[in-house]
Write a structure and sequence with these properties.
two-stranded antiparallel ribbon; 681 residues; two-stranded parallel ribbon; 29 helices
Length: 681
């Protein structure tokens, strides 16, 4: 008797393998692979050469410099070759699996394809264990790795905006809406609890940091457990998470009172759950999943305004995708719950607490910086009418105090000559807050159309100045920097403004974590690890502090710089774009009903998997783009993207839903065989 199922599977497997071979028209690559590698390598090369020129000239680059673009072209060529080699290995992994007639993650696949036999055994054992227990063990492991950071920063790094948020509440008796109200309330709850239990505010700092650290450890362990259950090779998961778990930047902000840390955890959870629902829309019927998804989205929306905007855009695109099929309305309704809650939350808080509305137009931070930069640097070329229009929206005395400053800022070489250190006004290249002080906020709100008109007019006549001001706030997210390049790329100082909280006496105020009993070298490592890779110690006989020490260590600077997410986004896009050709054929066959079992396993997951990969990448990309209009190029602003890096590196590996169904069938067959053996015995 002929096994018809086996015959059909063999035929479709041969057809699938043939189609994959045809897609790779240029040896190991398809045409789309080559184009993608070239485009991404040009982006990397341009960013690296422009960044080096920008910081080398202290923000005065020559955009038409042949040497700069020549170096960029050379970098692009090297990167393109690396990308082509990587894609060749990537294609070989998926195409060799398709020749076997199975998805590389299917039960019959060779374990040598992407994951070792040992890794596969570990993954199988993990899947059999209760997921709550797995996450608990992983979470404890992360906390153990972060123990040195807990010791170094004990009781916590009381910095960033937290002292100002608490000062507004305890000293001004209001909640300042300039900062997220949810974060301020959480800070207040921790500080009140610590003060009433232990009689000092340092306990409040530690309670906050401990809760935050445990939450971040949970978010990472939750993501790792999910990815392993989605059949991402264990080695890939371990490697991707090691990049972040051992990263001193992440460990530092786990012990820092910054809203960005909590937001990072919620962003990661939202990304993981978004992938889960897009892979399998049946999760929308699971109320436990719905509650988890709503809470993650709500936390993401409450802790950063751009978090809400990014969530809306990504979910709107998801609703338009065919992978949701008839579940679009249900998905939209579920997303609407946390969005509406985030909108209503400030209103409810306003009923319970006195709330002071923000006096700063953060949305115009980049625009005001560009206008003030033009006023300072191109003052002689501005017409009298242009100056008059600028003075309508900016205080003339504040601008002139910076223009004619006798007390410039000396924090960075070549920067701050138009900043007045005594008045705190003028223009400071890396920081837009100074331009915000110069701005007439109320007048600008009332005459916003006129401000936009002024902005467009100056942009047309002063493109160089506008471009340079823009790069001050964005270049560090592309080009790896250290404190020498940009002071804000490192850790914010402890209680920078010396805030004293009225709730406690001077003896009970938060204690500085800089203490002599702690290992000082480890403390310096956490405060700016990039300096260890970029600069030479002064004691070396062959160099000065500004020269390079062991130049190859410079390659490690991106690991601890705000530019790390940029490289992760590029690599993730490369792998997702290259895998698309292995998913597209199966999607078409599954859509018209002609797919065989072999097609499903040979070509992968289809459209649902590709949509999940693409949208989680888009979630990270959109947030990364919002950083370009933020008040300063800051290390903590990039922290949420640091936590998304493991997800970005692992989603190209996730298996098809068809594999999940096949795995269940295999388990049923094994169970039946065991039961049959027992019955025969």
């Amino acid at each position: 008797m002929v096994d018809r199922t086996s015959t059909e599977g063999d035929t479709s497997e041969h057809s699938a393998a043939t189609k994959i071979s045809k897609k790779l028209k240029y040896g190991y690559w398809s045409l789309s692979d080559i184009i993608l590698c070239l485009v991404l390598s040009i982006i990397v090369g341009s960013g690296m050469s422009l960044g080096a020129e920008f910081y080398h000239t202290s923000g005065s680059p020559d955009y038409w410099s042949p040497s700069m673009w020549g170096i960029g072209a050379g970098i692009a060529v090297v990167v393109a070759l690396l990308f082509l080699g990587l894609v060749a290995c990537w294609n070989r992994r998926w195409s060799r699996s398709s020749h076997k007639g199975t998805d590389c993650d299917a039960p019959d696949a060779s374990y040598a394809e992407g994951a070792s036999m040992g890794g596969r055994r570990v993954a199988d054992r993990i899947k059999r264990v209760n997921p709550h227990l797995v996450r608990l063990v992983m979470c404890l492991g992360v906390v153990l790795i972060w123990l040195p950071a807990i010791i170094v920063f004990f009781p916590g790094n009381y910095s960033s905006d937290a002292p100002l948020q608490l000062s507004a509440y305890y000293n001004g008796h209001v909640l300042d809406a300039h900062w997220p109200l949810a974060h301020t309330l959480f800070l207040v709850a921790c500080f009140n609890t610590g003060f009433h239990l232990f009689g000092n505010l340092s306990a409040g700092v530690f309670l906050y940091c401990l809760a935050q650290l445990l939450f971040l450890a949970f978010a990472l362990s939750f993501a790792a457990d999910r990815l392993i259950r989605w059949n991402v090779p264990v080695g890939v998961v371990v490697g991707a998470f090691a990049i972040i778990v051992f990263n001193p930047v992440v460990q530092t902000y786990a012990m820092t009172t910054a809203k960005d840390s909590l937001f990072s955890g919620f962003l990661l959870l939202t990304g993981v759950l978004l992938v889960q629902v897009l892979r399998d829309t049946s999760n929308l019927r699971d109320w436990k999943f719905v509650v988890e998804f709503c809470l993650a989205c709500l936390g993401m929306s409450l802790l950063r305004k751009q978090g809400l905007y990014v969530l809306l855009i990504v979910c709107l695109i998801a609703v338009c995708m065919s992978s949701l099929h008839k579940k679009r309305v249900r998905f939209a309704a579920i997303v609407a719950v946390p969005v509406c809650a985030a909108v209503i939350f400030p209103v409810v808080v306003g009923w319970c607490f006195p709330v002071q509305q923000s006096q700063v137009l953060d949305e115009l931070s980049l625009a005001r910086q560009q206008i003030v930069a033009t006023y300072m640097y191109d003052n002689s070329s501005l017409s009298a009418s242009e100056k008059e229009r600028i003075w309508e929206y900016f205080d003339k005395s504040s601008l002139d105090a910076g223009l004619n400053s006798e007390y410039p800022w000396e924090g960075m070489p070549g920067v701050g000559r138009y900043y007045n250190s005594q008045t705190g006004t003028g223009y400071l290249e890396p920081l837009t807050d100074v331009a915000g002080i110069d701005m007439k906020t109320d007048y600008t709100k009332q005459h916003l159309a006129g401000f936009i008109s002024l902005y467009c007019e100056l942009a047309l006549h002063h493109p160089y100045r506008f471009t340079t001001a823009f790069l001050w706030g964005s270049m560090g997210y592309v080009y790896p920097t250290t404190l020498a390049d940009n002071r804000w790329s490192g850790l914010a100082p402890w209680n920078e403004f010396g805030v004293q909280l009225g709730i406690a006496s001077s003896e009970a105020q938060p204690v500085d974590y800089h203490q002599s009993w702690k290992p000082q070298k480890l403390l310096a490592w956490y405060c700016d690890a990039a300096e260890f890779f970029a600069k030479a110690p002064a004691s070396t006989p062959w160099g000065t502090p500004s020269s390079r020490y062991l130049p190859f260590l410079r390659l490690l600077v991106p690991w601890v710089s705000p530019a790390l997410p940029f490289f992760a986004l590029i690599l993730s896009l490369l792998l997702i774009g290259s895998r698309r050709k292995f998913l597209r054929g199966a999607s078409r066959k599954m859509a018209d009903g002609t797919a065989h079992r072999g097609d499903e396993f040979a070509l992968g997951a289809g459209s649902a998997t590709f949509v999940a990969m693409t949208l989680v990448w888009l979630l990270a990309m959109l947030y990364w783009l919002t950083l370009f209009v933020s008040p300063v190029m800051c290390g903590r602003y990039a922290l949420p993207l640091f936590l998304l890096i493991p997800l970005l590196l692992c989603v190209p590996w996730i298996s098809s839903l068809a594999y999940r169904q096949a795995e269940r069938q295999r388990e049923n067959v094994e169970r039946t065989a065991v039961e049959g053996t027992g019955a025969n015995a």
